Amino acid sequence: MYRLNVKKKKSIMNDRIPQLAGELATEISKELKSDIRKLGKKTFNLGGVHPEANKFAHSAEVVTFPLPDQAVVYMTQHLGAPATPIVQKGDKVKVGQLIGEAQTFMCANIHSPISGTVNRIDMIADISGYKKPAIVIDREGDEWDESIDTTPDIIREIKLNKEEIIARMKDRGIVGLGGACFPTHIKYMLKPEQKCEYLIVNAAECEPYISTDNRVILERTEQCLIGIEIALIASGAEKAIIGIEDNKPRAIAALVEMCKKFTNIEVQPLKIKYPQGAEKQLIKAITGRSVPNGALPISVGCIVNNITTMYVLYQAVQKNKPIIQAYTTVSGKSLPKEQCKIFRLRIGTPIRDVLNAVGIPEDTGKIISGGPMMGKAIANLDAYIAKGMGSLLFMNEKESKRGEVHPCLRCGKCVAGCPMGLQPYLLHAYSNLKRYEDCEKSGIMNCIECGSCSYICPANRPLVDFIRVGKAKTGAMIRARNAK
Ligand code: SF4
Ligand code: SF4
Q: Residue 407 domain-assigned?
């Protein structure tokens, strides 16, 4: 008999919720609670799983991390081609000055996160261990580019029009901070036949441990909403809806209260279910619309952007500030709770500095960037902070070890858990057998690599690992066929 870990995986209820609900009960007025209740809770209808939330940094205020003495700024901090360095060794740079230019369509500008002198331009390993082009800057003081408004004043009047906002997004190097780092301006460059009806703002933050969006909402509520107003102008949509899981009651309350000042922005609480923050699942939950396979959200009249991206968009448009900082949750089960923090870090800060500041727990098995469901294990701890690094998580040895793999039990849990309606056990088998045409017929290209199937499998089968490889090979096969 196999020893299955079904029981462990079924103990999925979030033990933080009652406490958070308590916070809601004591800190939020009766009227506001009633307003929130009226909004109801929505979710997507197909599949999904319930990993432990472990939001240990939920109540931690954002802390500004000390400036690094030297910053290593990768030219590949986004989806697409690397930016091209436009500075040389010995050049003096200021904070916010353009140092890497996007010279292809799918690319994003990179700005200096510190002031000082360019030490060198080199190939330096990132968290994957692979060397990437980077600019190394030795810090001298903290002198900002004069064009950037560094005051704490909130600028409410939006003076730029649609085209100017999209140009500003591109100029200031804005990328999606929900994980993919997709250059934001591209999402808003619609074709004449495309129309955006809904701007969907992703505040679901459904990955365990990560609390960055929650804190940015709580500490910068109005700026986030002004950012959404800016994105509404850029998208042409008349309404924005913020989707947020209901394990963030204080953030929901802050948004609902602030939305009273913004007539075209609504809040939609969501049930807790992973992957609630995936684009297609979020659109389904909020609008009831299904994005067809292979299509983008705009095909059903939606643009989706993460809430922290809305905050940096506010900074870009109202303050002319590019992305030079990352907001990073540092957390883990074995990290003392007071050490679970959210840092505001300059891009290019050594990851080692962050790890030394909180202390690596003795039983750490691996450190991952991103959430435990979709994030990646850091292969090189001597790498540097990049734009989209929303978390650094310490997984203890127990969490890091994969359970013994058993033959498939034909239990169907992976099928029931797949939010894309796929048959993960079958895709795993086809990928393993290199039957890529069968992979294609079985819809492998629709897999969003959410990891729900691997998480739920009682036989510990590495489903998503094989599916990811199969998807890459099938994609290559399709491209080769189309090129003929
Ligand atoms: S990783 Fe792919 S196959 Fe597995 S549950 Fe997610 S979408 Fe389905
Ligand atoms: S692969 Fe799917 S069907 Fe097989 S044991 Fe795992 S969850 Fe059950």
A: no
464 ligand 1 Cβ < 6 A: yes
Tell me which residue of 351, 390, 64 sits closest to 203, measured CA to CA: 390
| Number of compact structural domains in the chain | 3
Please list the ranges in the chain whose pLDDT falls under 70. Answer: 1-27
Residue 389 CA to ligand 1 center (angstroms) comes to 23
The number of residues making up the chain comes to 484
Sheet holding 62-64, edge to edge: 62-64, 341-346, 325-332, 391-396, 364-369, 376-377
Ligand 1 atom 7, closest CA: 447
Q: Give the pLDDT confidence of 238-270 residue by residue, as tens digits.
A: 999 999 999 999 999 999 999 999 999 999 999
**Does residue 232 sit in helix, strand or coil?**
helix
Query: What Å distances lie between residue 319 and 116, 159, 246, 295, 329, CA to CA?
Result: 22, 12, 32, 35, 25
State phi, psi for 182 to the nearest 5 degrees.
-70, 130
Q: What single string gives the DSSP state of each residue in 185-222?
A: HHHH---TT----EEEEE----SSS--HHHHHHHHSHH
The CA distance from 388 to 257, in Å, is 29
- Cα(433) to ligand 1 centroid in Å equals 18
- In angstroms and rounded to an integer, the radius of gyration of the C-alpha atoms of the chain is 22
Look up the domain containing 370 and give its range. 1-66+145-401
Q: Which residue has the tokens 């940096």?
A: 312
Instruction: Look at residue 406 and tell me if it is in a domain.
Output: no
Q: CA 175 → CA 274, 304, 336, distances in Å?
A: 23, 13, 32
